[in-house]
Amino acid sequence: MTADGTAPDDVELFRMLARAMIELAEADRLESFALPYPSGVQRALDQVVLRCLHQGQTPPSGVPDLVRWCTKRVCADWPFGLPAGFVGRGASLVDARARMTTRMCAEVASDGPAGVVEQQALVLLANLETAASSLTFFETCREFLIQRVLVTGAAIIRMRATDPAAALVWRRVGHLYGPIPQVYVEDGEFFVCPICRLPARRLGQGDVWCEGELCPRDVALERHPAAGAQLLIPSLRRFLALPGRAERDVRTRLGQLGADTALLEGTQGSLQLRLPGGRSWTLRVHDRVEPALLAARVSAGPTSLAVVPEYVTQARADYRNAFEQALPPGLQVSLVTDVELIAMASGAATWPERKHDA
After folding, report:
1. What is the pLDDT of residues 205-235, one digit of tens each?
2. Residues in the chain with pLDDT < 50?
3. pTM for this one?
4. Same domain, 108 and 144
5. Measured between alpha carbons, how far is 111 from 16 in angstroms, rounded to an integer?
6. What integer pLDDT is reported at residue 51 of this predicted model?
7. Domain check: are 228 and 146 in the same one?
8. Shared domain check, 167 and 210
9. Which of 164, 213, 230, 308 has its CA 20 to 30 A from that of 154?
10. In 3D, which of 10, 6, 42 has the Cα closest to residue 23?
């Protein structure tokens, strides 16, 4: 049942399943099914069974079978209806190669009023900003989280011994990290993708998987000792560190062009862009695989430009059109890639028609 006691519709049932897979993954139990199951997982299973029985379909036999459902079924083959364009037709909630939740799963789990993943990240950042002595110190803490998804045991010792500024930040943000989950540990080592800087796994025969998902699979992974290392929690990895790397690059390149970008207080990530000629835009850098869910997200904050890395749009030909089709009526937000933004700021491309900040 949903929070108001009613049976979930098809979209909410899909969100429930996404949240269930996230709950299992964060408990390091996607392949370990000891009772009792997390409450959200049991509710999702109950609702799927009821829906299957109502529609005359064979329901999953339990939580392990439910995980197999979410692994083997792409959205185009989903047994319950989903609106056209809601998510990519070839996407699944659990990656079949790595048996890990996908980026789509995290974005769906964050969608709607009961969303959990991105919402957790935003609350944690808001709390960090409230506790910070100044907006400048909050930005310093935020930058630390973006740059240091993994903090090794040796790095913690060095900070405490030789870098008092970093040690001060670590004291403020250390609670946002935790030990390396066992699913990522191989022979005492932990692997990081050198491109997205997120956790990665070796899958055999030279194949690799990383949380960024869109990185090349033939890269040489970085290796670190898992003992004593601390890893940024999943919600902040996906909704701060991943887009944060693109944001840092955009801000650096804009600065080289004489433009100024400033973090807007209380937004946990929106930027005010001021161009040398005096023109200004409010923007936010995102890194999302599902454009319709991004369109729903941009209605929640002050944004006139939604910026995404070019590689995201290259991975999905209908990305821009799907975003525009899904924008809520009356919302005036333009989608641009990081490459397009720099071209516009340099004068090599035309800015979109002026739209008022939402």
Report:
1. 878 999 999 999 888 999 999 999 999 999 9
2. 4-6, 356-358
3. 0.93
4. no
5. 10
6. 92
7. yes
8. yes
9. 213
10. 42
